[in-house]
Every structure is written in structure tokens, then in C-alpha cells.
Amino acid sequence: MLSSLLNHRRLFQSMFILAIIAVSWTCLMPLEQPPIDINHGDKLLHMLAYLALGLLLERAAPERFVPWGALALLAYSGVIELVQQQTGYRTGSWADMLANGSGILLALVLRPLVLRMASPLSQRQHTS
Fold first, then answer.
1. What is the three-class DSSP state of 8?
2. Verdict on whether the full-model pTM lies above 0.85
3. Splitting the chain (128 residues) into consecutive groups of 10 residues, what average pLDDT does each group show?
4. What's the alpha-carbon Rg for the chain, to the nearest Å?
5. What's in the keyword line of the UniProt record (predicted)?
6. Helix (H) or strand (E) holding 102
7. Angstrom distance (rounded) from CA 47 to CA 20
8. Angle made by CA atoms 99, 105, 110, in degrees to the nearest 5
């Protein structure tokens, strides 16, 4: 069941597009207060957002994720940080880029696990 769900490419393409829209919106809207009130909480949110984007993109286009998808996400992250600088009410930072890159890197590290979960059970039993 899980492997079947993880192989619905169109579903993940749609989810990725929605996630990109959501991340873009939240990164560019005015922010009155930090989203979570813990030390470096915003960096944690950056990392989690880009981890989610990376995992969704990996399922949406697995054959292109390494390296092109990961590099495209990092470039998108840089564009968002630059655009934030231009808004007048948000700031971009290298620390945010580092947190974003950490999320993308974590998605790359978790990729073998996701691929294993996505493979049919019969295929996994033959490799064990």
C-alpha cells in the first residue's frame, strides 16, 4: 500500500507545486513575529520546509532529483532570499540559505530510505 502510494508521480508533482506556492507565499508575506518562539526556530522551519520540498521533488521526478533537482531547489532558495531583501519588510540571510541547504542535504541523505520504501515489497524481499 505505502509503496503504491509513493509511486504516484502525478500526485507528488501536484503536491510539490502546492508546496512551492506555500513556501513562496510564507517566505514573502509580511511577518509580524517569529513563527515559533525558540532559539533559531526560524532556521528549523527553513530546514523542514526544504526537506519537505526535497522529498516531494524526489518523488515527483526521481530520475532528475540528483543533482539537478537539488541544485534547482538551492537556486530557488537563493532567489527567495534575494527577493526578501527587496520587499522592505523581510530580510534574506546567508544563515537562511544554510538552513535551506541543510534541508535539501537531509532530503538527499534520506533518499535511499525513500527509494527503498517506494520499491515493491517483492523486490525488497529479494534484496534482503
1. coil
2. no
3. 68 94 94 67 92 94 89 97 93 94 96 82 49
4. 16
5. Membrane, Transmembrane, Transmembrane helix
6. helix 94-118
7. 14
8. 125
